[in-house]
């Protein structure tokens, strides 16, 4: 096993425990993945709890999904593979069923192309526009196609009545963006029916100019 793979396996264990302790992951819900330099993907195993991962049992799969090492991968690994295929710069993906983000995914939205208001600069910078993908039953392979389509333009997306998928250039970046999404959703619900003052179109354009990479 390469040093890179060993390091990334340990990192998945650490971040899994962190997300579990922060109650962003519960039971055996949610999955994390990392793409290695050789293109293989490390993904959390099926029925594993993110709070209690073991480095050597983490699944290693080929970009086609074939198991190369470790336990069988999460049943949701197929949509991680679709995002990696569509976004060459993505090196890590976080998918959780955290409370506020899931609540947001269960609302009726006027527009499905952007369901999280631009309330704060960090929300805009880390999450950006958040499209809502329609509901699919767990394991439905048609979800991979919908995810692939959304991943062409978005590193973060929300699955209806399910939860978000967030990609990043590193596991840290994907986790931070996921946490920003969850916190922004929490703020959105705290504001409730009160009239909020989201960032203006100009403010968002300025952020995109200043921080786009
Ligand atoms: Zn899920």
TrEMBL record:
SMART domains from the xrefs? Aldolase_II
Matching Pfam families, A to Z? Aldolase_II
A biological process (GO) of this protein is: pentose catabolic process
Task: Extract one GO molecular function annotation from the record.
Answer: aldehyde-lyase activity
Which family does the similarity line name? Belongs to the aldolase class II family. AraD/FucA subfamily.
- Protein origin, superkingdom: Bacteria
Which keywords, in A-to-Z order, does the entry hold?
Carbohydrate metabolism, Lyase, Metal-binding, Zinc
Query: According to the entry, what is the taxonomic lineage of the organism?
Result: Bacteria, Pseudomonadati, Pseudomonadota, Alphaproteobacteria, Hyphomicrobiales
Q: What is this protein called?
A: 3-oxo-tetronate 4-phosphate decarboxylase
EC primary class: lyase
Q: Where is the Class II aldolase/adducin N-terminal domain?
A: 10-189
């Amino acid at each position: 096993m390469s040093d890179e793979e060993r390091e990334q396996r340990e990192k998945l264990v650490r971040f899994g425990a962190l997300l579990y302790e922060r109650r962003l992951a519960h039971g055996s819900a949610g999955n994390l993945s990392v793409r290695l330099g050789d293109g293989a993907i490390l993904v959390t195993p099926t029925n594993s709890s993110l709070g209690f991962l073991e480095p050597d049992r983490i699944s290693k799969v080929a970009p086609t999904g074939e198991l190369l090492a470790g336990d069988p991968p999460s049943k949701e690994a197929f949509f991680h593979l679709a995002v990696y295929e569509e976004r060459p710069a993505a090196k890590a993906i976080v998918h959780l069923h955290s409370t506020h983000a899931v609540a947001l995914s269960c609302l009726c939205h006027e527009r499905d192309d952007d369901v999280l208001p631009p309330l704060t600069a960090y929300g805009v910078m880390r999450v950006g526009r958040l499209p809502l993908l329609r509901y699919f039953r767990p394991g439905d392979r048609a979800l991979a196609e919908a995810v692939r389509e959304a991943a062409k333009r978005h590193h973060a997306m929300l699955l209806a009545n399910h939860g978000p998928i967030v990609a990043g250039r590193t596991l840290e970046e994907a986790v931070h963006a996921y946490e920003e999404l969850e916190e922004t959703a929490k703020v959105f619900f705290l504001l409730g029916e009160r009239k909020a003052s989201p960032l203006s179109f100009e403010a968002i354009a300025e952020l995109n100019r200043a921080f786009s990479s």
